[in-house]
Write a structure and sequence with these properties.
GO molecular function, one term: ATP-dependent protein folding chaperone
Number of strands: 29
CATH topology of the largest domain: Nucleotidyltransferase, domain 5
InterPro entries: ATPase_NBD, Heat_shock_70_CS, HSP70_C_sf, HSP70_peptide-bd_sf, Hsp_70_fam
Bound molecules: adenosine-5'-diphosphate, magnesium ion
Family: Belongs to the heat shock protein 70 family.
Structural class: alpha+beta
Protein name: Heat shock protein 70
Number of domains: 4
Number of helices: 15
Organism: Rhynchospora tenuis
Length: 626
């Protein structure tokens, strides 16, 4: 019996935009959303009546910035006390608070009540939207997905993204690195030409993250040699620089600070973002916002030179990280065959210029679709994992690396590295430890990730204890600590005391700072509840729309001149009054219940039906006459 293969989808869950793709009929299809767009804003907006995700949420942002959430990819897997989180909060119109475990939560007003959501929950809402977009296109339920993350995402950011997938009801088959996905999108059709190895450098500068990877491509083999980046560097930072610049200008000119006004800040930010985009094609642009603050219109100009100046250090950082990636890969810049530009911000002229000067302008490949490449690659990987691809797909072999070094704090807090950064994953490394004192009964292991020598300057992933050690001189008991990194780049650490059954396990999920199983289960239930509420709301909206369409249609019919010969004027007036009564009622009732809308429609139809019948029969006569 032929088994029906249900396709897995590829989702690029971006800071600003997300994109979904599927392998179908031997090619990758980028799926358009309900507005016909190939990417969807990663925005979620809450109102008195409903929840919007994607385009509609983005459109609602100007009206209600404090209840419209975006950019949560900059929060996911981070602590509230992170300096970068604090900086973002200062410029976001919505508010973010800390829970008892220093985890950030966004605060919104939904249906008149204050609600708090973890970044994972907001991301899950975006993922659900992307799932839904795919389902509408495919016509059936989707379960499996490959979700991409910046290559430079650390263990907690990867875990949190996977949790977001679980909350969204997805089976995340793989967490895939974004630059690797882009390299795959680029190299996939060239597999046959690549009998000789090629060094492909992926430069992905998006809305919130910067990510580079050096990928060696040979035939269908895509082997990542090194990766570098900054999970907090992208288009939003450039917007912030422009925003701050104009906030200061406004202060200087008008002696007023707009910082506390969420709506003004949002409108100015949008204007700054538009200005930034146009500076990719022009050298000077205007920034204009009518009635920005206290009735004052704002108008100014921004030149490309000024924009470059404002972001100079950030652009330089991109080149520094590029250099670091080459150094780590032990590849000279002259050995690079091609540079693939990915991410919306890679369109910035200065960025391309700096990169061109450093690597050679001719090597910059600008043809790939900057906004879709990541989802494209994810769809190929999804096809391979679900066994629905063709021979070319099946021949693809991907090998990623771990972005950060992993190790344990030893004597006086020094980090002993067990898995150096850029080690190919999946991997298993075993390191042997012992006691520091004579007759020490237990050893505490603190596992860190990062590049600093001082363990405490790195990121603490978790702890575990091996106890029950029999009395022995220091250095005699042997404890094997096993680091296992899976294909998603997610780490598991366990320790075993040699010659005994004593084991310990780093159970990161039990750490207070991450979501616990019960919390995730609760969130899944809530996500389902919100989905059901959205669906119920949609029914109301649809019922109201039917009444609205009918009333509007009748308001036009009633004014047709040919009607005069069919009904008396008083009869016409009577129907017209009822139609306008319905229209006024609709204006006052934004979300009536389905039953009320239906019954209003029924009554209106009963009144208008004789008229419609008369009109139809007249039209038929007209046809015969013709
Ligand atoms: P992400 O994957 O992080 O969501 P994208 O790759 O979709 O990000 O890029 C979005 C970012 O690119 C936004 O900050 C947007 O302002 C910026 N961007 C888009 N087009 C241009 C352009 N023509 N010039 C400069 N920046 C751009
Ligand atoms: Mg991206």
């Amino acid at each position: 019996m032929v088994q029906k293969v249900v396709p897995a989808i590829g989702i690029d869950l971006g800071t600003t935009y997300s994109c979904v793709a599927v392998w179908e009929h031997d090619h990758v299809e980028i799926i358009t959303n309900d507005q016909g767009n190939r990417t969807t804003p990663s925005y979620v907006s809450f109102t008195m009546e409903e929840r919007f995700v994607g385009e509609s949420a983005f459109n609602n942002a100007a009206m209600d910035p404090i209840n419209t959430i975006y950019g949560v990819k900059r929060l996911i897997g981070r602590c509230f006390s992170d300096t970068s989180v604090k900086e973002d909060i200062n410029l976001w119109p919505f508010s973010v608070v800390a829970d008892a475990n220093d985890r950030p939560k966004v605060v919104v007003n939904y249906k008149g009540e204050e609600k708090q959501f973890f970044p994972e929950e907001i991301s899950s809402m975006v993922l659900m939207k992307m799932k839904q977009i795919a389902e509408t296109y495919l016509g059936y339920t989707v379960k499996d997905a490959v979700v991409t993350v910046p290559a430079y995402f650390n263990d907690s950011q990867r875990r949190a993204t996977k949790d977001a997938g679980v909350i969204a009801g997805l089976n995340v088959k793989r967490i895939m690195d974004e630059p690797t996905a882009a390299a795959l999108a680029y190299g996939f059709h060239k597999i046959k030409d690549y009998s000789k190895p090629q060094n492909v450098f992926v430069f992905d500068l998006g809305g919130g993250t910067f990510d580079v990877s050096l990928v060696n491509v040979c035939g269908g083999h895509f082997e990542v040699k090194a990766t570098a980046g900054d999970t907090h560097l992208g288009g939003e930072d450039f917007d912030n620089r422009i925003l701050n610049y104009f906030v200061e200008e406004f202060k200087r000119k008008h002696k007023k600070d707009i910082k506390g006004n969420a709506r003004a800040l949002w409108r100015l930010r949008s204007a700054c973002e538009r200005a930034k985009r146009s500076l990719s094609t022009t050298t000077i642009t205007t920034v204009q916002v009518d009635c920005l603050f206290d009735g004052i219109d704002f108008s100014s100009t921004l030149s490309r030179t000024r924009f470059d100046e404002l972001n100079k250090d950030l652009f330089t950082k991109c080149i520094e990280l590029t250099k670091q990636c080459f150094k780590d890969a032990k590849v000279d810049k002259n050995e690079i065959d091609i540079v693939i530009l990915v991410g919306g911000s890679s369109r910035i002229v200065k960025v391309q210029q700096l990169l061109g000067v450093y690597i050679g302008d001719k090597k910059l490949h600008r043809d790939i679709n900057q906004d879709e490449a990541v989802a494209y690659g994810a769809a190929i990987q999804a096809a391979k994992l679900s066994g629905q691809g063709d021979e070319l797909v099946n021949n693809v072999v991907l090998s990623d690396v771990t972005p950060l070094s992993l190790g344990v704090a030893v004597d006086v807090g020094v980090m002993r590295i067990a898995v150096p950064r850029n080690t190919p994953v999946p991997t298993t490394k075993v390191d042997c430890f012992s006691t520091r004192f004579d007759n020490q009964p237990s050893v505490l292991f603190e596992v860190y990730e990062g590049e600093r020598l001082q363990a405490s300057s790195n990121h603490l992933l978790g702890k575990f204890v091996i106890s029950g050690i029999s009395p022995a001189p220091r250095g005699v008991p042997k404890i094997d600590v096993c680091f296992e990194i899976d294909e998603d780049g997610i780490l598991n650490v366990s320790g075993t005391l040699r010659g005994s059954g004593e084991t310990g396990k780093l159970t990161i999920t039990n750490e207070e700072s991450w979501l616990r199983k019960e919390e995730i289960d609760k969130m899944i239930k809530e996500a389902e509840k919100y989905k059901a509420e959205d669906e119920k709301h949609l029914l109301k909206v649809n019922a109201r729309r039917k009444l609205d369409d009918y009333a509007y249609e009748m308001s036009k019919t009633i004014r047709k001149p040919e009607l005069l010969s069919l009904i008396s004027d008083s009869e016409r007036k009577k129907i017209e009054d009822r139609v306008y009564e319905a229209i006024s009622w609709l204006e006052l009732n934004e979300v009536p219940t389905v039953e009320v809308s239906k019954s209003k429609l029924r009554v209106l139809k009963e009144i208008c039906e004789p008229l419609v019948t008369k009109m139809n029969s007249r039209n038929q006569v007209d046809v015969v006459e013709l």
